[in-house]
Amino acid sequence: MxxxxxxxxxxxxxxxxxARELALAGGFQVTVVDxxxxxxxxxxxxxxxxxxxxxxxxxxxRLAQLSRRLWPEALAAIADGPAGSAxxxxxxxxxxxxxxxxxxxxxxxxxxxxxxxxxxxxxVRAEPLDAAALAAAEPHVTRDHTAALxxxxxxxxxxxxxxxxxxxxxxxxxxxLRTGCEVLGARTRGGRLTAVRTTEGDLAADLFINAAxxxxxxxxxxxxxxxxxxxxxxxxxxxAPLPPTVFHKVYDADYVGAVGSSAExxxxxxxxxxxxxxxxxxxxxxxxxxxxxxxxxxxxSAIAAKALRLFPGLAxxxxxxxxxxxxxxxPDHLPVIGADPRLPGLWHAxxxxxxxxxxxxxxxxxxxxxxxxxxxxIDPAPFRVDRPAVLGAPAPSEESV
Length: 401
Hints:
Order of helices and strands: EHEEHHEHEHEEHEEEEEHEEHEEHEEEHH
Helix content: 25-40%
Mean pLDDT: 93
Number of helices: 11
Structural class: alpha/beta
Largest sheet: 8 strands, mixed
Shape: globular
Radius of gyration: 21 Å
């Protein structure tokens, strides 16, 4: 592998993590390319979730558990790097605060307990909270609840800073970054991808990694190997800074269903958490609208209404701003990680939807092992490119995205 040229297409957190992992592995000459700036699109418009609580037993949970173990290790290694690295890690705001899931109906409580029992069998810590314990953990949460569970393994990061720390470490280990460079098409030789055509000229390499997030479907189509990765939009409200009010990531039991839904219409659930600066983030929504980036008042209103069911005391709190972003959605709700069998030289690391921040580290480790040909820690087969959900529908056209 020594001297293998790798081009990572996308400078969001997944691309940054992949670049870092390959740069640290040695033997790779890594370049990261993005049509915009580093981490300025999907990554900058997320909440920074590093979760196991919202994933049932299966391949995504195993990837989440791997990632949760690797995140503190990666940040510790970066902090020990060149001058300024410790400051970059502090900016990540790693917070293993844990999560609390609250049900407000009897049906929601039954579903939550069944879900947690399955998770425990897969190694997830899910601890029941009675009314007194919930009140002690979250003094301002609604008392009108039917069940609550504590997930101590859940954590949070500041997403743009996390991506910057990963990318900075990759650059410190020899990676090159090219921003403002859009990929236009492919150059092939003997059926193999050997270069990409860009607005800055051709860029040759031995391996190309499609880590373009919601734009992965369009990018793959331009390269002649379409994958069914579509944009799914989410919006978030940000309150004015408050005294300590929310101490965990708190969400209602409907959130898991919204994450797993394939519906095109609006899906909302209450997700409430504080930032280090004191603002409270209110989510969440999911809707498939292509790349329409307009904020919709009715969506923001629905988010606020759900959040107030969990934290009624937020009713009089000013909202400073709202923002939204696109997440890379795959119909079977699993990431796409691995080599493209139709076009040698092309690899994919995409399709994480709203879990890309948390899953980025594990995805990069899995991809590194696959590129090296070593045995991964988890089974990569469920994430393969040639599964029906990924290749079973035409890629989005330029007009539709």
